[in-house]
Amino acid sequence: MTDPGLFFSNKNRHYLSIGCAIILACLTGCGNDDFADLKQYISTVKGAPKGRIPPLPEIKAVETFIFNPTGLRDPFKPLAQPEQPDVTPVPATGSGIRPNFTRRKEELELLPLEDLKMVGTIKMKSNLWGLVKAGDGSIHRVQTGNYMGKNYGKIIRISVDKIELMEIVTEKPGVWHEQQTALALTE
User: Fold this and answer.
1) Is residue 70 part of a domain?
2) Phi first, then psi: what are they for 5, rounded to 5°?
3) Is residue 176 part of a domain?
């Protein structure tokens, strides 16, 4: 067996004994049995009256709903534009009133006026805009000068309770006249 003195010199033994003394001093400080405040707190908590836990809320039965998309349009496909009938301009007779066939049609002109509903107004920058609901449920914002309906209806006035239009209708081919109509507030 080897002598332990061979591994440690006198200087190293001195440091080792000082280190051991420090460790023992630290460990003797941990031996304190002063847990009186902790024991008192535990006994106070255990001695407190027990609270009552409220009962769980009643679970309401939810009616099941099965979605059936049959007959509904796909929301991820663009709206199909109805085909426009070929309207060949007929020379106007009489008063000279006739629609502008070269003007590009607006979106609400593709729907009959009966399928449109005025649902409100909105004031933006001192202009009163009308809110019109189409048959598919979409809401459109219109202003004076816009067109609606299949009879070339031009919006001439918007008030809080109605949208007034001037339509150009025909009685017979080539004979056009203006007629005033209105879309009243419905909702």
Assistant:
1) no
2) -65, -20
3) yes
Query: Which residues are registered as beta bridge partners of 45?
Result: none
| Domain of 145, in residue numbers | 107-184
Q: Which residues of 58-82 are buried (b: 16+ CB within 10 A; e: fewer)?
A: eeeeeeeeeeeeeeeeeeeeeeeee
Per residue in 38-54, pLDDT (tens digit) is 899 999 988 888 888 88
pLDDT < 70: residue spans in the chain: 1-11, 28-33, 80-95, 187
Residues 6 or more apart whose CB falls under 8 angstroms from that of 10 comprise none
Helix intervals (H) in 30-182: 36-47
133 domain residue, yes or no:
yes
Run of H or E including 42: helix 36-47
- Position 147 in a domain: yes
Q: In CATH, what number is assigned to the domain containing residue 124?
A: 2.30.30.830
- What pLDDT is attached to residue 92? 47
Q: What was the pLDDT predicted at 155?
A: 93
For residue 97, give the nearest of 179, 182, 183, 181 by alpha carbon: 179
List phi, psi (to 5°) of 123.
Answer: -105, 120
Give how far the C-alpha of residue 63 lies from the chain's centroid of Cα atoms, to the nearest Å: 25
What total of structural domains would you count in the chain?
1
